[in-house]
Amino acid sequence: MKETINQSEFFYSFANQLPYSVFLFKSKSQTFAKENSLLFSNSKAMELQRTPKLGSTHLNIGSLFPFLFESELFKNIQAVWNEYKQWEEVITKNTFQYFGFQNQTYLLKLTRLDSIHYTISLEELTDAILAEKILRQKETKLDRLLKTMINGVVVVNLEGQILYANESASEILDLELEKIENRYFSSKEWKQISEDGSPFPADKLPLALALGKQITVYNCEHGIISEDGHVKWLNVNATPLFDEHGNLEGATASFLDITELKNTQNTIEQQNRKLTSILNAIERSAIVSVTNPEGIIIRANPKFIKISGFTESEIIGSDHKILSSDYHKKEFWQGLWEQIKKGKTWEGVIKNKSKDGNYFWLQTFIHPLYNLQDEIEAYLSIRFDITEEIEALENTNRMLHFTGIQNNRLQNFAYIISHNIRQHSSNFTSLIQLLEESKSEEDKKNLIEMLHVSSIQLEETISHLNDIISINQTLNKPMEDCSLKKEVDKTLSILSGSIELRKIQVDVQIPEGLTIRTIPAYLESILLNLLSNAVKYVRLKQGAWIKVGIEENNEQITILVEDNGLGINLEKHGNKIFGMFKTFHRNEDARGIGLFITKSQVEVLGGEIIVESEEQKGSRFFVRLPKNPEETLRV
User: Where is each PAS domain found (predicted)?
Assistant: First the structure.
């Protein structure tokens, strides 16, 4: 205890003899904080007092030096506190709470004595001392700055000899500092090269220009070959240095290693050249457009404008609905947008319509384009005209369609030839033989009558064959827009006598103005066959009715002919109901040709016919036809 007191007395005695102010503080928590209490202030410090309270023990560092806890100063002190390093700062302050400086400039030092004690000293600075101190501080900061810079820095004298190099220069040049300093910047040992690999001209080096022409050089790029043969690329700045009299005394250069950047730049340039070639090829061969995220066209190449038939001013600012053919359903476009908004590429075939009304098909690829924030900023559409391919495929499908129909007809045709004609031929042969052998005139007369009947039957068979052939002959007949209400009314008018005779109630439900593009003769034949069958096989009693209904759905026309007549046993006859010479009732007018011809005509128009029936309850025939069959059935 006595030794501690002696040490304190020694410290106080020593401090009182110092020519500058000293304050001793204590930190119970071993931290630098405003609450650290004042233990002692020397006699020089007492001269600064404005109040007797300066020597009292309740004072702390926060009340005496509040400015030390301003953010920047406090941060600097904290950085050296735990390392027990001395911290100093030149300060100029007018007044404090307990003492004033009268505008003097002081050097403030903070020195940590042990874990809980530290001092703050205030030394008044003269102009000379201040200048020297400031210079020393600047030199220290400069040295610290140079050591921490990522730039390599060298300083040369008038002869170009390197006097100073920082550590970054050593790392960039792959040389120890001893090998850099004292070497001349223009020495051939550096092996400095231009971008094409040739030696870099010595008089064009940045330091040479700074010394020779006394100018500052920015962003000069050249390579330097290291001792192991690798090339490093440098970006160099250089500037002349002058003394206080304005005389040139040397130059300094700073440089960065841009080798990786240079290699990346070369790679990017190569990729850009490739990309440019690809884009030029696409521009020449593809139909290209770019839209904003909302689908508004902001760019269209000449091929796009040409195939669309619109002018560029009509295209830019519009969306792709300007080319809509109304072919694709709403769900198609919803699926497309859903996919590209998720950042996925969409691929598909789109049918478009040009300004002059021509349809064309495009194989389409839509790619999202992103900005630097990884947000979709546009959509790139690349398209190829595949109209010829689509039409060729449609023609192939139509040919297959017609080939199937023709094969079916040929089978029936062959059946007629092989069966019916052969029977007629055999019957004629037999009758003629009997006629030759007949003795009586009565027998001959009967045989001749039988020959006459057989001739009529043969004529009917040939007529049926002609009906089949006529379908082939009308395949290329022009199509027209027909009013469905008008055609049904015309057919019912033809059958009106039979309808009135059988007292049939007819219910017709057809929307006004509903039309279909078709071959008029086919539509008339289809309606006449279906309605005449309904009339023919009606039950001859009260309550007979026929209903005709037509509706449009998704570019398809559905014709319904329904009756409550005799009906058909579909379990027994369903697989042959549309066959040739198939009858299902004992009606003497039945020939078994009508439904066969109807089905053939429906199929030629690209449609289908379906039957629902039950014996003694009636039948329902559904005919479904495309509203615009020539779109898919052009031959």
Answer: 138-183, 271-317
**Whole-angstrom distance, CA of residue 290 vs CA of residue 381:** 6
pLDDT per residue as tens digits for the range 537-559: 877 667 889 999 999 887 889 99
Q: What is the DSSP string of 378-399?
A: EEEEEEEE-HHHHHHHHHHHHH
Measured between alpha carbons, how far is 246 from 131 in angstroms, rounded to an integer? 21
**Computed from CA positions of residues 579, 582, 588, 591, in that sequence, does the dihedral angle turn out positive or negative?**
positive
Between the CA atoms of 610, 611, 612 and 613, what dihedral angle is there, to the nearest 10 degrees? -170
Contact 618, 413 (CB under 8 A): no
Q: Give the per-residue pLDDT at 117.
A: 92
- How many Cα atoms are found within 13 Å in the side-chain-facing hemisphere of 66? 6
Number of helices (H) and strands (E) in the chain: give both, helices first.
Answer: 21, 23
CA atoms of 561 and 544, how far apart (whole Å): 14
Q: Which residues does 320 contact at the CB level (< 8 Å), separation at least 6?
A: 289, 291, 295, 297, 381
Report d(CA 44, CA 118) in Å as an integer.
18
- Tell which residue, 467, 486, 449, 441, has the closest CA to residue 596: 467
Q: What's the pTM?
A: 0.38
Nearest residue to 255 via CA among 289, 218, 290 = 218
How many angstroms separate the CA atoms of 368 and 388, rounded? Answer: 29
326 has which bridge partners? none
Q: Say if CB 211 and CB 203 are below 8 A apart.
A: no
Paired with 552 in beta bridges are 557
The closest of 451, 516, 448, 445 to 487, measured between CA atoms, is 516
Give the span between the Cα atoms of 143 and 49, in whole angstroms: 39
